[in-house]
Amino acid sequence: KAGVTQTPRYLIKTRGQQVTLSCSPISGHRSVSWYQQTPGQGLQFLFEYFSETQRNKGNFPGRFSGRQFSNSRSEMNVSTLELGDSALYLCASSLEADTDTQYFGPGTRLTVL
Amino acid sequence: QKEVEQDPGPLSVPEGAIVSLNCTYSNSAFQYFMWYRQYSRKGPELLMYTYSSGNKEDGRFTAQVDKSSKYISLFIRDSQPSDSATYLCAMTVSTAGGTSYGKLTFGQGTILTVHP
User: Fold this and answer.
1) Which residue of A48, A52, A104 is the best one to mutate when testing the B interface, meaning the one whose CB has the most B CBs within 10 A?
2) pLDDT tens digit string along A9-61?
3) Does A33 lie at the interface with B, CB-CB under 8 angstroms?
4) What is the pLDDT of residue B96?
5) Are B43 and A104 in contact (CB < 8 Å)?
6) A99–B105: do the CB atoms touch at under 8 Å?
7) Going by fewer Cβ within 10 Å, which terminus of chain B is more open, N or C?
8) Cβ <8 Å between A56 and B108
9) What percent of chain B has pLDDT over 90?
């Protein structure tokens, strides 16, 4: 079974721009969670989607948003990029239940100049 | 204070050593505990998943949970250079009530180097 895939793997943007990242979960997985990983803050939860609905959201500004499609693929968007948004963005998929094992993708490394 | 505390290391051990990695937590609602391994420029890979106090063994890895002390550990026996990575503890609450869907809370990660 193919793992979680994320595109693109690397991205360079400038301040003020917006960016969209994509995540394809493991086949059959319906829950997708997004995390931001930085050296200073570690891995922090952004939000979780299930059946096209956001069920949970972390403590991030409204510039961070996401959505999920009917095939469970998910995208996250960051508008008005700031230098501090430079990070590794990881998505994880799980079957459906809240305590199901989460499997992570390789991440998208975003650099904001 | 962070909900989950993990010594970032770095930890350097010789091949064959027993490695002990630890996390403490403050939220007594955490009921499910995981250990992930992350190689450089890769996503985290699940190593162990447990939800009860006590020990769980899988090959060279043993996960230990002590809910009364709010303390979890991962032991690696006969460590190998290929074990060199960042080890992350993670935990989540039971969602009776549905307030924590998909949210894992991670420790900062411990950087481990096993040298030949």
Assistant:
1) A104
2) 999 999 999 999 999 999 999 999 999 999 989 999 999 999 999 988 999 99
3) yes
4) 57
5) yes
6) no
7) N
8) no
9) 76
Q: State the Cα–Cα distance between residues B72 and B92, nearest whole angstrom.
A: 13
Distance CA A57, CA A34 (A): 10
Within 13 Å and on the Cβ side, how many CA atoms surround B56? 17
Which pLDDT belongs to residue A20?
98
DSSP string, chain A: ----EEE-SEEEE-TT--EEEEEEPPTT--EEEEEEEETTTEEEEEEEEETTEEEEE-S--TTEEEEE-TTS-EEEEE-S--GGG-EEEEEEEESSSTTSPPEE---EEEEE-
The residue type found at A103 is Y
> Which residues of B fall below an 8 Å CB-CB distance to A?
31-32, 34, 36, 41-46, 49, 51, 88, 90, 92, 94-95, 98-109
HSE value, Cβ hemisphere, 13 Å, CA-based, for B57: 3
Q: Is the pLDDT of residue A71 over 90?
A: yes
> Do residues B36 and B44 touch, judged by C-beta distance below 8 A?
yes
